[in-house]
């Protein structure tokens, strides 16, 4: 049965999970857990926090699945929940800044020493230079960019997640891209 | 550096180009064909977008697989509560006894009967009607995915019969209809991973 669940469309799994089928819910979690984890890591910059976010989102998703109007849209929904939880966590962390330094883990965006312009230019793909440029962005721009490019959220969805207007999202995203393009092209 | 200013000499801005890439909206689309600055800007934004895709692919690979221990640990900690649904009364020989079964258990029964059909996977199951009142007509509605290569009509007919038998055996519901909606035909090889 598990093999079959792994090949059926999201809507089937979401419908079953809303009915209380834990196997279908776990299949959904296997399907999108890595994407959720990747997005949460990039947003929070912490491996441990990211796994906490994924766990919280799965609990929330199980409780609220029956409110999901369009079961086929479950992937976007899970990622939006992941984005919101990650942002919540960042806000809590800012309020308790002294506690987070005890975490001891390097943020995901931390650039290793020596990965400056010269060595980054050698990296063919530009991932390293993008990571470095991303970590230097103002926080609000960085969040907009990640929610758009890693989470695949629309301007309106990002606006709701960040509690700002869609026009602000458009502006911040554009400024983020302008800075990233400049930083990356400087290094070419 | 190819972009000294946010606003080009043609008067357009990178913000407009950024929006154009996401939405296809631009005040003067033909301009994009002819303006070297705008084309240059679009090229840069597209390269950034490609780098973003690479970063995502790399992040996703680093996040591991859905079958890895990290996710198993998370799932093991979830303690998902049951969804019993409505309570469905059952008759009893002794009037002092109150017997019932949960809607959730009947939904699970329907799912399990559907899943046991070759090539069939149940989706959402609904019991429509007042199941809390003995004898009220109840319609069973079921979404079904069928794996490619299995005969749809034969599957649905034999499933309807199996469901009717199972519901008669395990419940006292007055089943007025069994509606099966085939929502998906899955064009994927089975047992391949």
Calculate Rg of chain B over CA atoms. 28 Å
- Please report which band the strand proportion of chain A falls in: under 5%, 5-15%, 15-25%, 25-35%, 35-45% or over 45%: under 5%
Number of strands of chain A: 0
In CATH terms, the superfamily of the largest domain in chain A is RNA polymerase sigma factor, region 2, helix turn helix motif
Number of helical stretches of at least 4 residues of chain B: 6
User: Rg of chain A, please?
Assistant: 18 Å
List the helices and strands and how they pair.
The complex is a heterodimer of chains A (188) and B (193).
Chain A: H1 2-5, H2 10-18, H3 22-44, H4 47-64, H5 74-95, H6 97-100, H7 117-122, H8 127-135, H9 139-149, H10 155-162, H11 166-186
Helix pairs in contact in A: 2-3, 3-4, 3-5, 4-5, 5-10, 8-11, 9-11, 10-11
Chain B: H1 14-23, H2 29-34, H3 36-62, H4 69-78, E1 87-90, E2 99-102, H5 103-115, E3 120-128, E4 137-147, H6 152-170, E5 174-186
Parallel strand pairs in B: 4-5
Antiparallel strand pairs in B: 1-2, 3-4
Helix pairs in contact in B: 1-3, 5-6
Plain-language structure description:
The complex is a heterodimer of chains A (188) and B (193). Chain A has helices spanning 2-5, 10-18, 22-44, 47-64, 74-95, 97-100, 117-122, 127-135, 139-149, 155-162, 166-186. Chain A is mainly alpha-helical and 188 residues long. Chain A has two domains: 1-108, Rna Polymerase Sigma Factor, Chain: A (Orthogonal Bundle); 112-188, Winged helix-like DNA-binding domain superfamily/Winged helix DNA-binding domain (Arc Repressor Mutant, subunit A), CATH 1.10.10.10. The longest helix of chain A is centred in the N-terminal third of the chain and has 23 residues, at 22-44. The radius of gyration of chain A is 18 Å and the shape is elongated. Chain A starts with a helix and ends with a helix. Residues 99-124 of chain A have low confidence and may be disordered. Chain B has two domains: 1-80; 87-186, Alpha-Beta Plaits. In chain B, helix 6 links the parallel strand 4 (137-147) and strand 5. Chain B is elongated, with a radius of gyration of 28 Å. Chains A and B meet through helix 1, helix 2, helix 3, helix 4 and helix 8 of A and helix 1, helix 3, helix 4, helix 5 and strand 3 of B.
């Amino acid at each position: 049965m598990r093999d079959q669940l792994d090949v059926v469309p999201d809507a089937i799994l979401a419908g079953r999970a809303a009915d209380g089928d834990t196997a279908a819910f776990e299949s959904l979690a296997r399907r999108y857990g890595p994407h959720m984890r990747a997005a949460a890591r990039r947003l929070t910059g912490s491996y441990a926090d990211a796994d906490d976010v994924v766990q919280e989102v799965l609990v929330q998703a199980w409780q609220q699945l029956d409110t999901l109007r369009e079961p086929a849209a479950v992937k976007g929904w899970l990622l939006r929940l992941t984005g919101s939880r990650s942002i919540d966590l960042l806000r809590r962390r800012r309020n308790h800044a002294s506690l987070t330094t005890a975490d001891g883990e390097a943020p995901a965006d931390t650039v290793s020493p020596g990965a400056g312009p010269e060595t980054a230019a050698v990296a063919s793909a530009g991932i390293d230079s993008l990571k470095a440029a991303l970590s230097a962005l103002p926080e609000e721009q960085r969040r907009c960019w990640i929610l758009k490019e890693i989470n695949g959220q629309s301007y309106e969805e990002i606006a709701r997640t960040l509690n700002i207007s869609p026009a602000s999202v458009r502006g911040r995203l554009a400024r983020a891209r302008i800075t990233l393009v400049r930083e990356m092209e400087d290094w070419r | 550096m190819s972009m000294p200013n946010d606003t080009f000499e043609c008067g357009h801005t990178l913000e407009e180009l950024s929006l154009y890439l996401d939405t296809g909206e631009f005040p003067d689309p033909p301009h994009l064909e002819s303006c070297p600055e705008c084309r240059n800007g679009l090229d840069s934004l597209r390269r950034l977008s490609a780098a973003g895709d690479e970063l995502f692919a790399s992040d996703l690979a680093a996040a591991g697989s859905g079958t890895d221990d990290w996710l198993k640990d998370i799932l093991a900690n979830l303690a998902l509560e049951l969804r019993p649904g409505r309570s469905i009364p059952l008759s009893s020989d002794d009037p002092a006894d109150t017997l019932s079964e949960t809607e959730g258990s009947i939904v699970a029964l329907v799912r399990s009967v559907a899943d046991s059909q070759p090539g069939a996977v149940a989706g959402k199951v609904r019991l429509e009607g007042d199941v809390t009142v003995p004898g009220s007509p109840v319609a069973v509605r079921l979404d079904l995915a069928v794996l490619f290569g299995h005969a749809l009509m034969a599957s649905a007919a034999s499933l309807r019969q199996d469901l009717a038998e199972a519901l008669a055996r395990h419940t006292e519901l007055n089943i007025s209809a069994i509606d099966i909606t085939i929502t998906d035909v899955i064009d994927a090889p089975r047992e391949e991973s």
